[in-house]
Amino acid sequence: MEEYLNISIGILLALLATFCFSLGFVFQKKGLLQGLPKINFDDTLKNIIKSFYEFFKNKVWITGFLLGIIGWFPFIIAVSYVGIIIVQPVTSLGLIIFLISSVKLLNEKVSKLEVFTAILLSIAPILIAFSKITNIDFDLDEFLIPFLMFLILSIFLSFIFFFLSKIKKESALEGILLTIIGVILSSIGASFTNIFTQALNEANINLISLFGWSEIVFGIFWFDTPHIWLFCSFWGLVIFFMLGILFYQSGFQRGKASVIYLIINSLSVIIPIFVGFAIFQQTLQNYYIFFIALGIIIFSVIILSKFQAKLETFLLEI
Asked: 118-153 pLDDT, tens per residue?
């Protein structure tokens, strides 16, 4: 009973995070079209940082950014309950928010297939819960090698896509490639979130206290495994999420919304699931139920991502 209660709490918190993330993306895209400078990776690092700094002066963009920051609090707590392998697929339910909003705000006609897809998508988290995925509980001393392999491979792929984006500069593919980099870097940040929650439990940190946060931010000076991982995972998730945001924004500035959201929604589900199985030793008893749920989510992403793009277009015109 307690197992299902934890899963339910984790899913509810993931849904709250999803609402913040989804709305945050729209506000960020709207802010981008209000005179913000285009991020040019051919420029010097100083000028790239200077351009990105201008984003924080735009009230609309910063609203979206802050919504994303707020969303990470329930996201991290959700991960501590059920792990990234459950939390990330649940975030796809944000597409239902866009479907309903499109009907209400745009008088968008919805086909029977899209209604059926939305119903299936709402059932997917229940199927995931019944697949009986184990709680996140791994040895901080033993997972290092597979995690480093994932980290090196992810960074290597990011460099490859970055090189390809240079080749395809000013083409339709440039925005897509930069968005893929953003997804990969954000997935690394999500993996660090898994490590952070595990280290947090082992170090028995009180997040309410100022001293607890000092243990996190300066944990390397405690010279024990949980605190060292707290330090590394905290700064890892901050750095890679910020880098992910930078590439997301660059992709938003160049890419078609319907394609960009399809890439984000699809890869953001697939990569963390692979990481959960391969690195964080999460297992499940009912593989068939889980992969049916995963198939439903991927199918739903393909069908419903267009409503996210349409709502964005509407908000940009306001």
From this structure: 888 888 877 776 776 666 666 766 778 888 888 999
Which residue matches tokens 């997972």? 143
| Residue whose tokens read 């968008």 | 108
Return the axis-axis angle of helices 144-167 and 172-203, rounded to nearest 10°: 160
Helix (H, G, I), strand (E, B) or coil at 108: coil
> What are 223's two structure tokens?
């010279």
Calpha distance 193→134 (Å, rounded): 17
What is d(CA 289, CA 285) in angstroms, rounded to the nearest whole number? 9
φ, ψ for residue 77, nearest 5 deg: -65, -40
Low-confidence ranges of the chain (pLDDT < 50): none
Give Cα 118 to chain centroid, integer Å: 21
pTM: 0.78
Question: How far apart are alpha carbons 290 and 209 in whole angstroms?
Answer: 38
Amino acid at 241: F
* Phi, psi for 133 (deg, rounded to 5): -80, 135
Distance CA 290, CA 272 (A): 14
Q: Helix, strand, coil proportions of the chain in percent (round to 5)?
A: 80, 0, 20
d(CA 143, CA 148): 9
Is the distance from CB of 16 to CB of 70 less than 8 angstroms?
no
